[in-house]
User: Fold these one by one.
Assistant:
Number 1:
Amino acid sequence: MEPRQPDDLAPKQVLARHGKSFYWASLFLGRSIADRAAALYQFCRFVDDLADGDLPQRQESLEDIRARLSGASCAAGPEVEAFIKLASENNIPLAAARELLDGMLRDQQPTAVLDQAELLRYCHAVAGTVGLMMCRVLNCQHARADAFAIDLGVAMQLTNIARDVLEDATMGRRYLPASWVNLAPAEIAEAGIESRQPVSRAVEQLLDLAEEYYRSALLGIHLLPFRSRFAITVALRVYRQIGFLLRRRNLHWWLGRVFVGKPEKVLVSLRSLVDLRPMHVPEHNTELHQHLQGLAGVDIK
């Protein structure tokens, strides 16, 4: 693999430029935790940009990164070495990072998800794993928190898919399950009148499914240290707002992305204060992970 030139931006600058919702939430973390969270985001952004980029050898590069995460001595670039150091210092499971790479490698092929089970397993690969890794960065001491952290990642990825239906379709990807709407990516990309309502119904199903995982994640947030709890609640509620905006726009996915503006972020953040009240965290709803057995961090007895 020919290593990609390192990003000249520091981790927090990468977060501020590319992950505005997460950067806003990170402002409520202490400095050291915010720095670690930004470093994790920088690695995830690096592999995501590589997967979605136009480099001719991107699949080979992703395979080399995965091999390096498995202990191989191949060169994978400074971003990967920085992440391995971060993982060692924070007990981040490399199995989660390898699964993240598996998800990115899958995106190198035309994508047409078959059913809800396949959708959820993909969401776990590219985002549930990130929730699992972030749990370590936030110094969470509760093993039970892993399941809820996975749920937050899955919920956010479902929201991403709902927001980016048109953009993904133009890249030859359809993450909407065929069991919900059996249209080819090219048909969705055309955004013709005949495809609008069927896809809108599927987007609504995505958002309904995301709500199940958001509700679970909101419970698990109470297992986090207090300061991290507020920041992650803000991230959850700001990201969740994307779905509310899509519904407010009557699920008109063909109009492109929706964005949560700064005034709305402030309002949502203030509402997050109610989530700081102490509460008992019930056992995790294992039904949410019935399709995720065998994946990183999933423990269904």
Note: The domain at 94-289 is CATH 1.10.600.10 (Farnesyl Diphosphate Synthase).
Number 2:
Amino acid sequence: MNVLPCTPGEALALSLSKMYSVSNLIHIGEKYDSLREFMRAVGQGGSDVDGIGTETLKKFRTATLIDVDRELKRMSEMGITPLVYGEEGYPTPLTEGVHDPPLVLYVRGDCSVFPEQAVAVVGTRTPSGGGRRLARRISEDLARFPFVVVSGLASGVDAIAHQACLKAGGRTIAVLAHGLHTVHPTAHRQLAERIIETGGALVSEYPPGEPARKSTFVPRNRIIAALSVATVVVEGGVKSGARHTADFALEYERLVLAIPGNPIEPMAALPNRLIREKHAELCRGLEDVLASLPHYTVDGLRDALDMRARILTKKAEQALTSLGPDARLLMEQIGTDPLHVDDLCRLTDLETSLILSLLLQMEIEGLVEQLPGMRYVANYRA
């Protein structure tokens, strides 16, 4: 880790003046022993540091006017902890192979979550029904291993990943594209509070008060990738934000995995392309994540997963038997392609009222899942 030519207070002041780049400071440190020496040279008109433009110099000057103690008190009242690059507590993953780490990482929540191994789960804001199920399953399994699950708190795959991780009793990190004074989208405020309450964290490189803008989301995605030993892409278009996250992960020499999808589905385009171009390894579940990570031994993992599958199958068989032969007949028709209730009536010759009653009980038992439009898919196959 490079040593910055400034004190932690000066670094915080620079971040509050909207200078988020560590690289500029390291560049200055190669020529000047301290930030004060650099500013003195600037004031005397003698600075000839290449790459430091007029706008950046304005930020340096603004930083000298900031009351750091007052800002620290204000952040403390908001429950926000600033972690400064090069200082104790700053997440180590952000310094490993990352050429553009945030100068300051602002945190709401438990800072002890960062030493834990993390895996990012990312994807589209508009996942298919299958994408939702896959995002939920991989996130729950990662949380139980346990990994910390990292995502961006956006609608769709991000929110599903956070929610599934919490359901499995895990800890999760949400990386935001704005200051921690608020949560965007506002519909996820309750989810954000649950993340904090369960030992996770909300993080951002942007100071409190900084709004989300179109230009802040791609930089946010680099932090998601950098915090994680691996990034799992569930669904997304080829030009989506998930593509940026995968690109950053590859740049930082992190593992990228992608869950393949139906070629005719638009949201399968990104994971399928990543696999085809050999930028990502194929991911069918937790076992593929672990098998691809050199840090973990997979001895006995498949046996453990097989045992879990046998237990779940036994429970499903018992539930199906208790529901009777009509339920089994119904189950034989339901697969991974969604079927409407009318289709099931036609395929089984059972009365609609009986089918609806059985489907409700089968959904409670976890045998099937209802999708919008009275369509059903199987969670279990004999």
Note: The chain has 16 helices and twelve strands.
